[in-house]
C-alpha cells in the first residue's frame, strides 16, 4: 500500500473516531457537524509524524466523498 | 485630564477579523467505508481458521474457533511431551520427582482424583515453571472438564 493510501485511511479513521463519541445521529453525516480541523490533522501527521504536506493533501483529496471539507470559524 | 466626549450622533465601530479555518466531517459514505474493514478481515481469516483434526473436530462457519479440542490422542501426546520436557531438568532429584508424578497425573485424568494429582504435580514442578508453563492451559482445561 502506498504512503498516501495508508495515510488516507488513517485520516478517515481519525475523523470517524472523532465523530463516534459525539453521539450524533445519522443526519449529522449528511448535514455536517463540527469535525476536526484540517490544520490539526496535518499537524499530527506532518509536523509530528512521518508524512509530508503533499502526502497529507493528496490523502485528504483521495478520501473524495468520504470526508467533507468545509470552511468555518468552528460552528456549522 | 478630561474624558473624551462623543458627539451625540457619532458612532464607534469595532472591526474584528476572524480567519475561517478548514474543517472536515465524515460523510455517510466514509462512515460505511470504515465499517467494511472488520467484515473483510473476518472473511479473510475464515479460510485460515478452518481446521479438521481428530475425532471431535469442530466445524465452524462464519466464526472463529477458539476452543481447545482435547481428545485422547492429544492427551497422550501431551503426556509424552511433558515427559520429554521434564527430562531436560538438570537437578536429578527434582527431575525424578516430576517424572514420577506424570503417570499419576495421566492415570487420574477424567477421574475425581485429577485435582489432587494436578496439585501434587504443580507442587513438584513449582521450581520449573518454564518447563510446565506450555502445558498449563490444557491441564487447566482437564480440571474443568473432568
- How far apart the termini of chain B lie comes to 99 Å
The biggest sheet of chain B amounts to: none
Oligomer: heterodimer
Helicity level of chain B: 40-55%
Number of domains of chain A: 1
Element-by-element helix/strand order of chain B: EHHHHHH
Individual helix count of chain B: 6
Radius of gyration of chain A: 13 Å
Roughly what fraction of the amino acids of chain B lie in strands? under 5%
Proportion of residues in helical segments of chain A: 55-70%
Topology overview:
The complex is a heterodimer of chains A (76) and B (146).
Chain A: H1 3-19, H2 27-31, H3 38-47, H4 53-62, E1 67-72
Chain B: E1 21-26, H1 28-48, H2 72-86, H3 92-108, H4 114-124, H5 129-132, H6 136-144
Helix pairs in contact in B: 2-3, 3-4
Model description:
The complex is a heterodimer of chains A (76) and B (146). Chain A has one domain. Chain A is mainly α and 76 residues long. Chain A starts with a helix and ends with a strand. Chain A has helices at 3-19, 27-31, 38-47, 53-62, and one strand at residues 67-72. In chain A, 25% of the residues are buried. Chain A is built from four helices and one strand; from the N terminus they run H-H-H-H-E. The model of chain A has no long low-confidence stretch (mean pLDDT 87). Chain B is mostly helical and 146 residues long. Chain B has a domain at 72-144. Helix content of chain B is 53%, strand content 4%. The longest helix of chain B has 21 residues, at 28-48. Chain B starts with 20 loop residues before the first strand and ends with a helix. The model of chain B is unreliable at 39-63 and 65-70 (pLDDT under 50). Chain A binds chain B through residues 12-13, 15-16, 18-19, 26, 28-30, 32-39, 41, 60, 63, 65-74, 76, and chain B through 18-31, 33-34. Strand 1 (67-72) of chain A pairs antiparallel with strand 1 of chain B.
Amino acid at each position: 500500500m502506498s504512503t498516501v493510501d495508508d495515510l488516507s485511511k488513517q485520516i478517515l479513521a481519525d475523523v470517524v473516531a472523532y465523530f463516534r463519541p459525539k453521539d450524533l445521529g445519522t443526519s449529522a453525516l449528511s448535514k455536517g457537524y463540527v469535525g476536526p480541523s484540517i490544520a490539526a490533522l496535518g499537524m499530527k501527521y506532518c509536523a509530528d509524524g512521518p508524512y509530508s504536506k503533499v502526502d497529507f493533501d493528496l490523502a485528504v483529496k483521495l478520501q473524495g466523498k468520504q470526508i467533507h471539507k468545509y470552511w468555518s470559524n468552528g460552528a456549522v | 485630564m478630561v474624558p473624551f466626549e462623543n458627539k451625540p450622533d457619532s458612532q464607534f465601530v469595532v472591526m474584528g477579523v476572524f480567519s475561517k479555518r478548514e474543517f472536515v466531517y465524515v460523510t455517510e459514505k466514509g462512515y460505511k467505508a470504515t465499517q467494511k474493514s472488520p467484515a473483510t478481515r473476518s472473511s479473510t481469516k475464515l479460510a485460515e481458521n478452518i481446521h479438521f483434526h481428530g475425532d471431535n473436530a469442530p466445524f465452524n462457519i462464519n466464526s472463529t474457533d477458539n476452543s481447545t479440542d482435547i481428545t485422547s490422542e492429544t492427551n497422550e501426546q501431551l503426556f509424552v511431551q511433558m515427559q520429554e520436557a521434564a527430562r531436560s531438568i538438570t537437578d536429578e532429584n527434582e527431575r525424578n520427582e516430576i517424572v514420577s508424578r506424570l503417570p499419576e497425573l495421566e492415570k487420574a485424568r477424567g477421574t475425581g482424583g485429577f485435582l489432587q494429582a494436578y496439585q501434587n504435580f504443580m507442587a513438584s514442578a513449582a521450581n520449573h515453571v518454564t518447563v510446565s508453563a506450555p502445558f498449563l492451559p490444557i491441564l487447566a482445561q482437564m480440571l474443568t472438564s473432568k
